[in-house]
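User: Please work through this fold.
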Amino acid sequence: MAAYQNVESIPAVGRVMPFILIGLILLSITVSFGLNAFAFRFSGWGLDAMYWFSSTTFALALTADILNIFRIKDQWYIWSVYNVANLGKALIQGNFANVGKYSYYIINSLIAILTWTVKREAKSRPNHLNHTETAIEGE
């Protein structure tokens, strides 16, 4: 990786390049399905519908967690899909505690997308008092 003089010169700050995101998703899917296949076979459950659902949601969560480490905004879109999937699972199971939890998480994801978008836009706009500082102090 090239050395950059300042944060603004790093490509795709706050976002991830599409080929990196695709690679990350494929790696997460491989790890998730592999670990779950081992666990499900070891437990004697077999590779049924729960295996496929568990592996898919784990891959989504793993991808979003890795993006979170690097503060990539795209994580919130993945968390939104993950939360909707788990809301559906909770509705099917009749687990109303999780219905409430994942409803809250969906709202949280949508607010986070808006917040991160506004924050990135504010950082890119010059401060009206001093054009060399960012609009959000402390960053």
